[in-house]
Every structure is written in C-alpha cells, then in structure tokens.
Specification:
With 305 residues, the protein is of the alpha/beta class. It is 35% helix and 28% strand.
Length: 305
C-alpha cells in the first residue's frame, strides 16, 4: 500500500531526512515513533505530497506521488499535526465541504457525510461551529476530513497531541475501530500509545530509520544481557553480597527494605550456581524470573545520541 524508498530532505544546512525507506502492508496499523524533531512530520508531508523530497521515491497504492500526484493523493486521508479545519463553519458544513473537494459523488454525498459523522460520534455536534468545539472534538473533525472520502490509507500525525487523558483514550479507540477497513500510518512520541495500537513499529531518530519490526521482535533484539529478578523470604541484603562474588553475575541490586533483587548473568547456566547459593544460605527462594526490556528502554538506547 505504501512504499518509501531512500527519501532524503534538507532544509538549508539541516538534514531532516537521510535515506528513509519502509513499507506498509494493507490493513496494518503502523506506529511511526520518534522524539520531537526526529523527522516524522517531514516524512508524512512528503508521503502525502505536501512537500517534495530531495531524492528517493514514494508509491501509494502503486502510484508515484511525484509522477501521478492526483491518483496517489486520492488514496490518502491525512490528519496533520495541526488539523486543517475552518472555525467559521458548522461541523456538518465543513465535512460536506471537504467531501465535495474530495469529489465524493453527489449521489453518495449525504450518506457518506452522515456515516462519517456517526462513525466519529459527531452526529450530535453537527450543527455546532467548529471554532466552539473542545480540542478533543476538533481532533474528531480533523479525522472526519481525512476519512469522509473513504480512502484506503490514513496518515495520522500525532492525533492525540495536547489532549487530556479521557480524550486520548477516545481517539485511540476511534483509531482501533478503523483497523481493517483502512491501512493506517500513525505517528507519535508517546511510547505506550504506539505499543497499544500498532501491528508494527518504525523508529526514526535524527532523520534516519534506526529500527523497524513488531514490538516483540524489537524487544527481543535489544534484550541485551540476560536480566533476572528474584524474591527471597529473608536476607536479601546479605544475598546481594553473596551473588556479587560470582564471576558471571553482575549489576546485583537490592532495594533497602524489600525482599527483591535484580541481577544480570552472562549465560543461563550460571542460574544453577545462583540457585545453589540461595539454597545453601537458606534465604528461601520465592520467585526467580527473567526481566524483559521495555519499549522505553529500547527507545532510549536507540535515540540517546
């Protein structure tokens, strides 16, 4: 559905994108993850034909965005970081206006507009001026303008930015409800957001793609040293010193007042020696489990420069 090959973009002396490439398959929700200024919005603006790339190519449903811009753009619904809405129109007037711009056939216009308003729970707000709506409802109107012509592809640039917690949950649920009907590229710098919504993740930093894949595959790749947590019945502080004496055990940490420890091992065979020390010292083993790297840890590892 979307194929980006080697796009680069400079703004004066600043290299906003460097040889960015990725694909999005039909029906997926792809999380485009990066810090502010990483290149997410520039990539999406090029993808939607708002600006041109210095090099590389973008294909939308088989249409090149440069060579066949009208055909390519007709396949996209775009919600940029600032929703393109008109404050002096009512919700109904605005969505109807956008539908006409998007060349929705007259015979389908009324049904298409009403269906879009219902899908986004805007029916009861349709006679309100857009300028009088809360930010959460303004985002819904922004989604409506991206959705009204029923495009196969939705490109959403940080759609929950600036919303309160309740509004964020509502917008996330709306996006989830669109899965399957539309292929969605969804950008954010909120880690929990992309983890909960997306089938695959693309991580960009300083204008370069630094990692992509499923959440599980990315976490597994960056698991690093094998980290474990342990709970004992007594003597956790003393056990910290005991485990610290083992050559292949490192970073043994114990929180004062707790019965838990964490530690890293160079190989899993060392766990036999760890268990032996716990039994010999009569510490009373309650729990031993491998720790998983978090998306936050992986993100910081990839973007700490």
């Amino acid at each position: 559905m979307i194929e980006i090959v080697g796009i680069s973009k400079r703004f004066g002396e600043v290299a906003a994108l460097r040889n960015v490439s990725f694909k999005v398959q039909k029906g997926q929700i792809i999380g485009f993850l990066g810090a502010n200024g990483a290149g997410k919005t520039t990539t999406m603006d090029i993808l939607c034909g708002c600006i041109g790339a210095d090099s590389g190519s973008v294909s939308i449903c088989g249409f090149d965005i440069t060579e066949s811009p009208i055909e390519a753009k007709s396949k996209i619904g775009y919600l940029p970081d600032e929703p393109p809405i008109h404050d002096d129109m009512t919700v109904l007037e605005f969505v109807n206006y956008v539908a006409k711009l998007r060349k929705v056939p007259k015979s389908e216009l009324s049904i298409r507009v009403e269906d879009t308003l219902d899908k986004l729970s805007l029916g009861h707000m349709k006679h309100r001026l857009v300028g009088n709506l809360s930010k959460g409802y303004r985002q819904r109107v922004g989604l409506a303008q991206a959705l009204v012509h029923n495009p196969p592809i939705l490109v959403l640039d940080e759609p929950t930015e600036g919303l309160d917690p309740n509004q964020i949950v509502q917008i996330r649920e709306l996006i989830k409800s669109l899965k399957g009907e539309h292929t969605i590229l969804f950008s954010s710098h909120i880690l929990s957001e992309v983890q909960s919504l997306c089938d695959q993740l693309i991580i960009i930093d300083s204008g370069e793609i630094v990692e992509q894949g499923t959440y599980e595959s990315i976490i597994a790749k960056f698991q690093g040293s094998k980290s474990y947590s342990m709970r004992v019945r007594k003597g956790a502080s003393k056990l910290q010193d005991t485990l610290g004496e083992l050559k292949e055990v490192s970073n043994v940490l114990h929180t004062i007042g707790s019965d838990s420890l964490t530690f890293d091992v160079s190989n899993v065979e060392v766990l036999d020696e760890v268990a032996k020390k716990v039994l010999e010292g009569e510490f009373g083993l309650l729990e031993l489990a491998q720790k998983s790297a978090s998306l936050e840890e992986v993100f910081h590892q990839l973007t700490r420069n």
